[in-house]
Design a protein that fits this description.
This protein is mainly alpha-helical and 230 residues long. The chain is built from 11 helices and no strands.
Length: 230
């Protein structure tokens, strides 16, 4: 039952996030959605009793600032704000946070099972849309659709869920900033959409935050470095 609930929450999160993008700028929707790592850190400390190093909280806030710069939200021309769009983003945040906690619970959700049920629940929930809008035109669209299903969901999500089950929630939360940073860099290198200097600064801040937050806590370093007695 928990697997089905987690899969349904993943599907709900992505559906409402894409609905939010239609009402907000892509940059604003991305920034609002990435409040989720902070929520995941707090949820891990509250529900699971995991330690929450202050350095990782600071690193997550720095990464969020970097993301705001990289998307052009800070220092840009401004974005149209829809409260409905912001609300949809926050629904996605709650859904993804609960999934992250379920993956770290005492009896965690198996990654392969979650990915399978994610596909099954998504296909069942979105089937009416296919009946109304029709199937994609035959041709390259089906190849992209198959690649999204096999690579993005079948492979990537199993690896992501497997990693989340083995890492603390604070480390998992911070690593979520790799995705938007890598997307912006690939967009520039592959499609030639080069970023403005301020946006590159934001990408750099995200990289700095990831490096900073990946360092082990001082207490752990002290324990390793301490000489053994006897």
């Amino acid at each position: 039952m928990r697997v089905v609930v987690a899969a349904a929450l993943v599907v709900l999160s992505w559906v409402v996030f894409f609905a939010a993008i239609q009402r907000l700028s892509v940059g604003l929707a991305t920034v609002v959605f990435h409040v989720q790592p902070l929520c995941l850190m707090l949820a891990g400390a509250w529900w699971l009793g995991e330690p929450l190093p202050r350095a990782r909280i600071a690193a997550a806030l720095l990464a969020l600032l970097g993301l705001s710069l990289a998307t052009g939200l800070v220092g840009g021309a401004g974005a149209v704000v829809s409260m409905l769009g912001v609300g949809l983003c926050l629904v996605a945040v709650v859904g993804q946070t609960v999934v992250g906690v379920l993956l770290r619970a005492r009896t965690p959700v198996p990654p392969l099972a979650l990915a399978w049920w994610q596909c099954a629940v998504g296909a069942l929930a979105l089937w009416p849309w296919v009946l109304v809008a029709g199937w994609p035109a035959w041709g390259p669209a089906w190849g992209w659709l198959a690649a999204l299903g096999v690579v993005h969901t079948g492979l990537a999500y199993v690896l992501i869920y497997g990693g989340m089950a083995r890492l603390s929630t604070s480390r998992t939360a911070l690593l979520q900033f790799v995705y938007p940073g890598a997307t912006l860099v690939c967009d520039a290198l592959v499609y030639g959409r080069w970023l403005a200097p301020g946006q590159w600064l934001g990408v750099g801040l995200m990289g700095l935050a990831l490096w900073w937050g990946a360092r082990p806590p001082r207490s752990a370093v002290a324990r390793v470095a301490a000489p053994r007695v006897g």
